[in-house]
């Protein structure tokens, strides 16, 4: 995580009051990542416009894709942290549409096959975020770090360690 701590926090694409530099933002389409996930893994979500201050997330504990309202509070607990990233090449409108697309997946079950990323009938957390940007803006956020033998898997850390995104928030 030292690598993450050395990344600069850059201003978000918009200077709206709720999306200022270095602060948690509820701007739709922003990606949220934490190293406080399920069973010691990481977790990811995407800010969705369907309700105020929610992220669309997928978890086996919630039986799949649901809206959640407490992502930002998952950081600063022991060694856990929370980050937000924005996709560099997209517009604010494309981000909104990616968040909206993810929010429309609410109710779909959890995808336990992490190498079946092209599936759109069920999702795991980072696959949901990846698919939102892939399907809406044609931006592939996969870094291939977790791919094996031509099978693609998207880990939440790839949404942070990725030259296509920029860090816009880090819990301190």
SS field, number of helical segments: 3
Element order, helices and strands? HEEEEEHHE
Helix coverage percent of residues? 10-25%
- Going by CATH, the architecture would be Alpha-Beta Complex
Q: Write down the overall geometry.
A: globular
How many strand segments?
A: 6
CATH class label:
Alpha Beta
Averaging pLDDT over every residue, what do you get?
88
The CATH topology turns out to be: endopeptidase fold (from Nostoc punctiforme)
Distance between the termini: 13 Å
Adjacency order of strands in the biggest sheet:
4-3-2-1-5-6
Can you walk through the features of this model?
- With 172 residues, the chain is α+β, with helices and mostly antiparallel strands.
- The chain has one domain: endopeptidase fold (from Nostoc punctiforme) (Alpha-Beta Complex), CATH 3.90.1720.10.
- It is built from three helices and six strands; from the N terminus they run H-E-E-E-E-E-H-H-E.
- It has helices spanning 2-5, 92-103, 125-137, and strands at residues 31-34, 43-48, 54-59, 64-68, 82-87, 165-170.
- It has a six-stranded antiparallel sheet, covered by helices on one side.
- Helix 2 (92-103) packs across helix 3 (125-137).
């Amino acid at each position: 995580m030292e690598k993450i701590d050395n990344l600069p926090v850059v201003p978000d694409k918009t200077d709206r009051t709720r999306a200022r530099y270095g602060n948690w933002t509820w701007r739709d389409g922003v990606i949220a990542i934490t190293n406080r996930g399920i069973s010691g893994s990481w977790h990811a979500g995407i800010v969705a416009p369907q309700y105020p201050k929610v992220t669309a997330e997928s978890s086996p504990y919630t039986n799949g894709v649901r809206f959640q309202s407490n992502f930002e509070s998952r950081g600063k607990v022991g060694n856990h942290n929370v980050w937000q990233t924005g996709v560099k090449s997209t517009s604010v409108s494309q981000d909104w549409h990616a968040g909206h697309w993810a929010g429309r997946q609410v109710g779909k079950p959890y995808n336990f096959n992490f190498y079946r990323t092209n599936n759109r009938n069920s999702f795991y957390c980072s696959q949901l975020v990846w698919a939102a940007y892939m399907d809406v803006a044609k931006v592939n956020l996969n870094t291939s770090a977790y791919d094996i033998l031509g099978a693609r898997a998207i880990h939440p850390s790839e949404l942070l360690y990725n030259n296509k995104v920029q860090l816009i928030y880090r819990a301190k």
